[in-house]
Structures are given as C-alpha cells and as structure tokens.
Design brief:
heterodimer, A: 0% strand, B: 92 residues, 0% strand
C-alpha cells in the first residue's frame, strides 16, 4: 500500500517533527554505534533498556534472516521522533510479513488482521525503545508473535496443549513409521500444498512449526515465548513435521489415484 | 538404496524416538548407522528434511486489507503520542 491510500484523517498523526533526534536513551538507531548498543527485548514486558540477553542471536544470524531494507533506518529514526509519515512507511515495509506471520499462526483472516493492527499499534507505542541491537524486523516480528500468543492465551487455546502432547496418544503423537512405501516427498510439494497442510495442523503443532521452520526461531527462543521446555519445543516440531508428512503423502496419494 | 529394510520395528522405533534430537544437533545431515541399513527410516529422514527445507522457502504472500491501516491511523489520530512507550506499559 502506498502513501496515497492513507485516509485523510490519518494526517492527524503526521506531526511536524524535527528529523534531528537528540542523542539520549531514545535516540534513533543511526545515532549510535552498534558497539555501544544494548539489547531491547520486543516482548510485551520489555522495558526501555535491557542488558544483553543471553539467548540473543548473533546480529549476523538475524540479518541473514531479516536483511536491512533500504530507507528503513531513516524511517525508524523519524518515526521515533514522532513522524507519522515515517511510521506509515515502516508499516508498508513490514505489513506483509507481519500479517503473513499472524495468518499462518492463527489460520483466520479476521483475527490475523486484528492482530496485525494490534502489533503495529504496539509498535507505535514502543518504537522509542528500539535501539538497533537486532534487526528491526526481528524486533517487530517478535512483538507480533507476542501479540498472537497473548491473544491465544486469552482465548484459552492451544498453548496448554503443548504440555498435553508431551504424552502422545495414538491419535496425536508422533506416529512411528514402519511401512515399506518407497514413495518420498522430494520434489512433490508446491508452496500452496504446503501452506494448506500447515493450516491443517493442530494449533500447538502449527505454532512451533511456523516459529521454527518458517520464521527461523531457535528452540530456546520458542521455549521462552511459549513458556515450555526446549525439549517440548523440539518434540512439538517433530510431531508437526511428522503430521505434515502424513498430510502431504495423503495429498500425493490422492493425486496419484486421480 | 541397496541391502536395506532388514531392521526390526524395535530398531526403527528407537531410532525414530531420537529423531528430534538428531535433527536439532545434526541439521539436515543426520548420520546414524541405522540409516545405512533401513530404507524406511532413510526415507523418513529425507522427507522431514525436505519439509523443513520447503518451509524455509515459504514467503509472506498476503497483504492485509487496506482497512487495517485505516484502523491503525484512526487509532493513532486519537492518541498521537508516537514512539513514546510508557515505562509502566509493560503488560500491554
């Protein structure tokens, strides 16, 4: 979406702010050296200044997944100073990925849009605390994940099932595969088929699969976000992949029979 | 794949129970003696690796509707305190 699609009354947020930002705790990312930056957690409970988190990924690893976007640093600095037009630029840079993340985690368009909206409103409230210790998109996506998780907790949904599935039942456990089929999936999955299969996963499985395999979070990060053990996260991921394999095989078998 | 599928279900079961840890430590290059002799578990590992690899290629494909930004801008217009997170706003 380009700026021209902004409703007229949105100009109310476009303050005539000074682009020059003072060098203090809320200074923009470009005003400070990376060597002197401190980690700012994007979790809802994060304060304005946190010591370097032990589980923080190396900057290089984060930037491989979320490479910087041209013009982003400048837009962040201006948005931190209260410039609404720059905040809209940030929205347009990141709306697709944040929305896709919400949609994959929730599987529901209306909820995904509501939570995308909530994530960006939270971003607006907290952008002054972003210090550039991680890629901005990493920080924002973590914020969006937390918004989704809080939403799911309020609904009393799937996070509880994470622990329940530690004791796998015949139905939802990681089925062992002793068959002798020689069919392998390699080369048979297209993106649409995989997206559909992911949406068929139980919510707890889908959550861990999306966070780990699609978004690239590590198990220790997922465990922290979901409030479960690292072993539980690994177990859920494995079950998710096994279930996907089963779903994708059924799909492949169905096509073969057609 | 030659001279395989001579394994017992017990061997396969024990191997598959350890798979989450194998994947976590070995990435997509799991090396285990069982895989040298079991076509079924080899196919399983290949499939799970393939699924994980395909998942990494999933791209953000959807834009939210224009109504999302309209709602955001309306909300911000009512509370134009951009970039000023309150320190006691932590529970939000």
């Amino acid at each position: 979406m380009q700026s021209k699609s902004v409703p007229k009354d949105s100009k109310a947020i476009h303050k005539k702010s000074e682009p020059q930002v003072q060098s203090h705790d809320s200074a923009p990312v470009h005003a400070r050296s990376k060597n002197t930056l401190r980690t700012t957690d994007a979790s809802p409970a994060a304060g304005p200044a946190q010591p370097l988190a032990a589980e923080a990924r190396p900057i290089q690893q984060q930037q491989r997944r979320n490479p910087p976007i041209a013009g982003e640093l400048n837009a962040i600095a201006l948005a931190q100073a209260g410039d609404g037009a720059s905040f809209e630029i940030l929205y347009n840079m990141h709306k697709r990925r944040v929305y896709s993340l919400c949609l994959r985690m929730l599987g529901n368009v209306a909820e995904a849009e509501d939570l995308t909206q909530e994530a960006f409103l939270q971003l607006h409230r907290k952008i002054g605390t972003f210090r550039g210790d991680s890629a901005f998109s990493t920080w924002l996506h973590r914020m969006a994940v937390n918004v989704v998780l809080m939403h799911l907790r309020k609904k009393g949904l799937p996070l509880v099932s994470l622990e329940e599935t530690l004791e796998p039942t015949q139905e939802d456990g990681p089925r062992k595969d002793f068959g002798t089929r020689d069919l392998t999936l390699s080369g048979s999955i297209d993106r649409v088929t995989l997206e559909r299969a992911v949406q068929e996963l139980p919510p707890g499985y889908r959550m861990v699969f999306v966070l780990h395999d699609v978004e690239g979070y590590e198990h220790n990060e997922i465990a922290g976000m979901l409030g479960c053990s690292i072993g539980n996260s690994k177990s859920q991921l494995h079950k998710a992949r096994m279930r996907l394999r089963s779903l994708l095989r059924e799909n492949a078998d169905g096509r073969a029979d057609a | 794949m030659t001279s395989m599928t001579t394994n017992t279900p017990k061997e396969c079961s024990e191997f598959q129970e350890q798979l989450p840890d194998f994947f976590d430590s070995g990435g997509d290059r799991i090396e285990h003696p069982h895989l040298n002799t079991c076509a079924n578990c080899s196919a399983l590992v290949r499939d799970l690796n393939y699924i994980a690899a395909q998942a990494k290629l999933l791209m953000p494909i959807h834009d939210p509707s224009p109504a999302v930004w309209e709602n955001i801008s309306h909300a911000l217009a009512k509370k134009p305190t951009a970039g000023r997170a309150s320190e006691d706003d932590g529970a939000s």
